[in-house]
Give the backbone structure.
Amino acid sequence: MATAGQVIRCRAAVAWALGKPLSVEEVEVAPPKAGEVRIKIVATGICHTDDHILKGSLPNVEFPVIPGHEGAGIVESIGEGVTSVKPGDKVIPLTIPQCGECSFFEPQNLLPDKTSRFSCKGKQIHHFLWISTFAEYTVVPEYAVAKIDTAAPLDKVCLFGCGFSTGYGAAINTAKVKPGSSCAVFGLGGVGLSVVMGCKAAGASRIIAVDINKDKFAKAKELGATDCINPRDFKKPIQEVLTEMTGQGVDYSFEAIGLADTMIAALASCNMSTGVFVMVGELDSGSEISIDPMLLLTGRTWKGTVLGGWKMRECIPKLVSSYLEKKFNSDSLITHTLPFAKVNEGFELLRAGKSIRTVLLF
Ligand code: PAD
Ligand code: ZN
């Protein structure tokens, strides 16, 4: 493309400091170095984790930073030695890279050579999880890119970069929900509703959806929840309500909110000897949870999931193919589509509980 090898000036949402709203700025994006790919982001979802960045509740984030991690786009240019993608390919950038060589995480505030490709007003801007999808162009390592089917609608499959894959994978990969089982899902945002979809796809016969915002219930039912309950409608603790509803507690419980109390309630809601609880929500960095040890001693299992436990580079293209074969309807998570300039409006909708997923279009 004509821009290959050149610095591109484009729009990006910059978080200059903790607690400040995002500011849409003109940024400079340097060309990709060896082993890197520059992507023109077409669409990006807003995930609650992006809000955690702005509030400072996520560890290892350095300001100023360009957030965003649920994007899809088209390769603009490639650095030396890149072989798995070429300009024009449709791709999803990955927050969990799969290099095939190692299995540990490294800091992702700067690219692997410890420099940034972003600058604005003469200042270096940090990357977020290497992928910073709130930028019209972003540079990522080749092993943090998944090439997807050319037929994929980028304004829909961007959710596969995080929310949908996380929730669906939490049920399928992490919990390994069995047919005929019972499940409870705490928190019905984009992630929790994707857990509901995963439980249904795995053949669960009872899926109890739990949220304090009853406006989420209609969509939860549409996606497979058999019951929807609001903890505020009961005097007794919600774990007791769930245990009474199911006899001995659910087989699998999931927390997709990010609060200690609801994690403990979800753990206590599953069967005391065989239940599996999957922690999906992110607690504030540095926080700790204390629990009654009896909750685990009797035999319950506490698991956690990052991005739904997929090997992302291999599995995201397969998920996109399943989407194109209409094996699930992740489109129904998208309640709002806004032009990129309205990024802060998208965050307001999320905080007010009015949206499931907002997709921003460049
Ligand atoms: P969201 O804000 O869209 O949804 C959260 C839902 O929880 C909303 O429907 C709320 O009404 C509901 N809720 C809030 N408080 C309570 C409560 N006390 N009891 C019951 N329901 C409540 O967020 P999201 O779906 O984008 O993300 C959910 C969490 O998952 C969040 O903590 C995010 O950071 C985390 C996440 N984790 C991963 C991962 O890899 N583990 C990936 C993506 C997101
Ligand atoms: Zn996310």
In short: The pocket of zinc ion (ligand 2) is lined by residues 47, 49, 69-70, 162-163 (CB under 6 Å). The longest helix spans residues 163-175.
